[in-house]
Amino acid sequence: MAFDGAFIHTLLSELNNAEFSHVEKIYQPSKDELVFHLKRKDFSGKLHISARNGAGRIGFTDAKFENPYEPPMFCMLARKIFSSARFVSAKQKGLDRVIELEFQAVNEMGDTVSPKIICEFIGGSNNIIFTDENGKIADALFRSDITAARMIMPGCKYVYPEDRGKLNILSTDTETIISAVRKKGGEVSAALLSALDGLSPLVCRELAFSAFKTVEGDCNSLDLELLREPLDSLKRAIEKEPCYTVLYENKAPKDFCFICIKQYGNMYAEKRFSSGSQMLCEFYGERDKAARMKRQSGDIFKTVNNYLSRVKRRMNLRIRDLEATKDREKLRICGELIKANIHLIKPGDVSCEVQNFYDENLAAVKIKLDPALSPAANAAKYFKEYKKSCAANASLGALIDSDKQEIEYLDSVLESIERATDSSDIAGIRGELVSSGYIKEKRTAKKPSVLPQTEQHTSVEGYKILVGHNNIQNDYITAKLADKNDTWFHTKNIHGSHVVVKNGGREISEQTLLFAAGLAAKNSRAKNSSNVPVDYTEVKHVKKPAGAKAGMVIYTSNKTVFVTPWEE
Questions:
Q1: 83, 117, 170, 558: which has the highest count of C-beta atoms within 10 A?
Q2: CA-to-CA distance for 53 and 345, rounded, in angstroms?
Q3: How many C-beta neighbours within 10 Å does residue 21 have?
């Protein structure tokens, strides 16, 4: 991905379109991103800054963000410094992957100050840093270690990343660049990457491909003068003619750039965008959403996985113990044989060999004895172990069934976490685990009200279709919202959502049937499969067994349809 210094340079004009706007609101949706609502009479936009590893960027966005119930301390500091501040300009030093946002604000003393936000997008060390007009750091999203050569700590003077001595393509003539590439030698794309500042490997490969129709050519065997036109074209793209492009593989965004990418031929589909911000929103939209869900659900995912591993280990031990009880009749027979031959056994014997009158051939059997016990006590010991084994056999079966049900339930919770799309889904799952006793409830002064929310659709006949996203929602739509004559859907033997068509016993069309079944398949563990079996029946045939965990039901009188998961 090419969010490099050259790409950042192309964004400057977009960012500076917001000059003289005021900061209306500031949010921190997750630990490594900030959102500033900027507004003036003729402009309104959300400036999104992300320092997430592998997805660092800056730009305007139309995306909706779910913010934490309590703002983090870094967000509180941002509000203290920048609330109601006026955005002045966005600047870049050369083609460094650092962008400087300057504001004008009034401090607590009533003085006009010029605080800055410095955004660093340097490989795996992205950062957001607040400084005053003199470069003194107020705080940073990620502070450096105290032993670091370049200190990023409150109170320190901000220092730009070390200059690597590369050439700036915008301020260096083409002849000098070609000479530097020739001097570097080796593969052309690697030499370009080593010689020029602010360019990503993707852009350097594209330069080589534009000149030589290959990305693997060597400097010593090619005419480097052919780089002139691609280099001049790249300068124009950076300064005023960017071509924002996203490459897609099987409809999934694969890569992006500010120039047209030809090196892959017809391997990827491509889509052009009118602005860099719009392109970044398209590329990172689903990735960011998935990353936020992963962060928000990380603790409960780990908790559920730990419980699942524990229950599986416990069940395996119980299965092993159950297997051991299969030979319990041998214990009773040993006791009976000792009693029948007690006159032949002497105190202190470690074993005895007697005829087994339970065997049709009256075969001899050797029985181990405890020499410290009398013959009668040895017989009683075998009878006691027999009774203990019988009791274990009777209870272990029920306990193993209980373990299987718990494993199925925890598996369904994991599946719900994987399908969660927003914070309310995670809050619902967390509440479910609290009520089930898997997580301790946190005591807070104020708690947000979390009510079951369901996904809703409308069929061609106008029937409402309800979809649950977790076990609490599944119980809610099936037991509370559905009428007994409505139609209920669920993937066959696969964890997933309950889906209810509110048809009240009226006939539904084949189109609605397939649509509802497709929704059930989409919201299940089989969402990436095809030809998914989905059961459907009337709600009156769906029952919740006494004591069953959330979302667990049994159903009868069902039919099955095979569908492909629905796609929007």
A1: 117
A2: 78
A3: 22
Tokens at 553, concatenated: 């039901």
For residue 78 the two structure tokens come to 């941002």
Give 74-116 as a 3 state SS string.
Answer: HHHHHHHHHCCCEEEEEEECCCCCEEEEEEEEECCCCCEECCE
Structure tokens at 295: 């962060």
**Exposed, middle or buried by CB within 10 Å (0-12, 13-18, 19+), for 512?**
buried
> Identity (one letter) of the amino acid at 102?
E
Distance in angstroms (rounded) separating the CA atoms of residues 518 and 514:
6
Question: Cα angle at 85 between 240 and 17, to 5 degrees?
Answer: 15
Cα 195 to Cα 232: distance, rounded to the nearest angstrom: 16
399-405: long-range contacts at Cβ-Cβ below 8 A with a sequence spacing of 24 or more? 399/318, 400/315, 400/318, 400/319, 400/322, 403/311, 403/312, 403/314, 403/315, 403/318, 404/315, 405/548, 405/549, 405/552
The span from the CA of 281 to the CA of 62, in Å, is: 8
Q: Which two tokens stand for residue 6?
A: 């050259």
Task: Note the pLDDT of residue 489.
Answer: 96
CB-based burial, 413-448: b 16+ in 10 Å, e otherwise: bbbbbebbeebbbbbbbbbbbeebebbeeeeeeeee
Radius of gyration of the chain (CA): 35
Helix (H, G, I), strand (E, B) or coil at 511: helix
**pLDDT for residue 443:** 60
Alpha carbon 238 to its chain's center: 34
What's the CA gap between 3 and 22, in Å, rounded?
27
User: In terms of Cα–Cα distance, which of 382, 454, 387 is closest to 425?
Assistant: 454
pLDDT of amino acid 44: 93
Q: Which two tokens stand for residue 456?
A: 């809703």
Other beta carbons within 10 angstroms of residue 323's beta carbon come to 10
Q: What's the predicted TM-score (pTM) here?
A: 0.65
| Measured CA angle at 319 (ends 545, 417), to 5 deg | 50
Question: Amino acid identity of 56?
Answer: G
Task: Tell me the mean pLDDT per 10 residues along the chain, length 568.
Answer: 86 93 93 93 93 90 84 94 94 92 90 94 88 94 85 93 89 92 91 92 93 88 90 92 90 89 90 92 80 78 92 93 87 90 88 87 89 91 92 88 90 84 78 84 54 80 91 90 94 92 92 94 89 94 88 92 88
Domain boundaries, the chain: 5-140, 174-268, 323-404, 455-563
DSSP string over 7-29: HHHHHHHHHHTTTT-EEEEEEEE
| SS3 label, residue 393 | helix
> For the domain bounded by 5-140, which CATH number is listed?
2.30.310.10
Residue 91 phi/psi, 5° resolution? -130, 160
